[in-house]
Amino acid sequence: MSERRTQEDRTAATQQALLKATIDCLVEYGYAGTTTRLVADRAGVSRGAQTHHYPTKRDLVGAAIDQLFADQASEFTEAFKQVPQSERTFGRAIDALWEIVSGPAYAATLEVIVAGRTDDELRAVIHGVAAGLERTVVDLLRWFAPDIDDPVTAQRVVDVIFTLVQGAAVSRYGGFGDPEAVIGLTRLLAEPAVAAIHATNAMALGPNRSQEDHP
Amino acid sequence: MSERRTQEDRTAATQQALLKATIDCLVEYGYAGTTTRLVADRAGVSRGAQTHHYPTKRDLVGAAIDQLFADQASEFTEAFKQVPQSERTFGRAIDALWEIVSGPAYAATLEVIVAGRTDDELRAVIHGVAAGLERTVVDLLRWFAPDIDDPVTAQRVVDVIFTLVQGAAVSRYGGFGDPEAVIGLTRLLAEPAVAAIHATNAMALGPNRSQEDHP
DNA sequence: TCCAAGAAACCGACCTGTTGGTTTGTTTCT
DNA sequence: AGAAACAAACCAACAGGTCGGTTTCTTGGA
């Protein structure tokens, strides 16, 4: 019965448990409702251990945000990767996106985004990891639209789609409108919209955003 | 110096001050940071008075939500009404929408929406007033697109636009993407999209949403 | 190989401040 | 006089954070 675990293993285990519990609590009770005690309990970890690994609540939530965004990135990649080659249309991508954004992970994400609105340190953390997640999503979605060569255009299309799906998620939380219908409509219009963007791309968009990231 | 005020005046004044202070606090400190003491202080009202008019925090915030959504409705109407007849294009409407959603009122709204996600009573209040606000916005935007006769289509278009703008607002808070660019693009694509919707409207959208509200 | 000493993980009691809500009393209008 | 609006003291609950002490692993010298 003697299970001798290395220190590294122990820290990894409890930290993992804590972060998972934190994310769960964010989903279930919101940011304010996510107390350190609750997290510790849920993680099956003593409060002392929690404070040892994450001295302050911000440390805890900050680490959880890192994990959360990383998880989301994997979730995206996973969901997209398993779409058969033949079905890689924009509509399908939107479906996948919508499903993910409807899940618990995005609830937690929205929670920290809103919390970050009035918490400078938190916001800094979020903005830091947001860029990475965005890059992942962009790369993935670009994968779904190989016909778009211009990286700027691709970026814009992805932006619009993601923005729309995100807005739909918020609408659902708020009880506005009919998010499902919006998504359905978006799915229908996605491809023609891309064409339209291609058409308007050369003109009228000059002034802003001259610099762009390049591989 | 004796200013004799009627009871009715007094209650109206302090309640008004409290609700305004509540909304301000929501904007500045978020839902969790909006404590009853803070609100009372900011309203220049004793805590006793506050508890007299709104015995519980939920009563306070609930009333504030009513006011908030009513304010938003007026703000929308106001902003839209003062757009000259000649400029009533969808693009212009989107600009107005974006400006409003970038303002403090929407920050407070998002705050309570997210809070409502994990607070049943709050959510009930929000869902209650959301319908009213939605109706206002729909009516207003329809005003900007008189060529859309079909109420179902009009509703859908408005839904999409509002969803997009809302998503852009959240994106900005989260540090995602380039919300301004998304809005710009939306403005460019709005009119062609309407045409496309008109084209696809007859087909493929049958199954869901057969019933609709009618004037 | 063994074992002492150090480091890291862990534990739970404790402290301080704040929260929402209650209660008791005072002022202002009716 | 009676009711309301208002004021402030008060309370229990709970938050995040600190702290002394215990257990578990690691390490390096005999």
Question: How would you explain this protein's 3D organization?
Answer:
Chain A is mostly helical. Chain A is built from nine helices and no strands. The model of chain A is unreliable at 202-215 (pLDDT under 50). In chain A, helix 4 (57-81) packs parallel to helix 7 (120-144). The relative contact order of chain A is 0.09. The interface between A and B is large, with 60 and 60 residues. The structure holds a DNA duplex (30 and 30 nucleotides).
Keywords:
DNA-binding; Tetracycline Repressor, domain 2; homodimer; 215 residues
Strand content of chain A: under 5%
Structural class by SSE content of chain A: mainly alpha
**Fraction of helical residues of chain A:** over 70%
* Mean pLDDT reading of chain A: 87
Q: Give the overall shape of chain A, derived from the CA principal axes.
A: elongated
Most extensive chain-chain interface: A-B, 60 and 60 residues
End-to-end Cα distance of chain A: 53 Å
Oligomeric organization of the protein chains: homodimer
Give the CATH level 1 class of one domain in chain A. Mainly Alpha
Q: What's the story with the biggest beta sheet of chain A? A: none
Radius of gyration of chain A: 20 Å
What is the ordering of alpha helices and beta strands of chain A? HHHHHHHHH
Q: Can you count the helices of chain A?
A: 9
Helix and strand arrangement:
Two copies of one chain form a homodimer.
Chain A lengths: L6 H27 L2 H8 L3 H7 L3 H25 L8 H12 L2 H14 L2 H25 L6 H24 L4 H23 L14
Helix pairs in contact in A: 1-2, 1-4, 1-6, 4-5, 4-6, 4-7, 5-8, 5-9, 6-7, 7-8, 8-9
Chain A binds a DNA duplex (30 and 30 nucleotides) through α1 and α3.
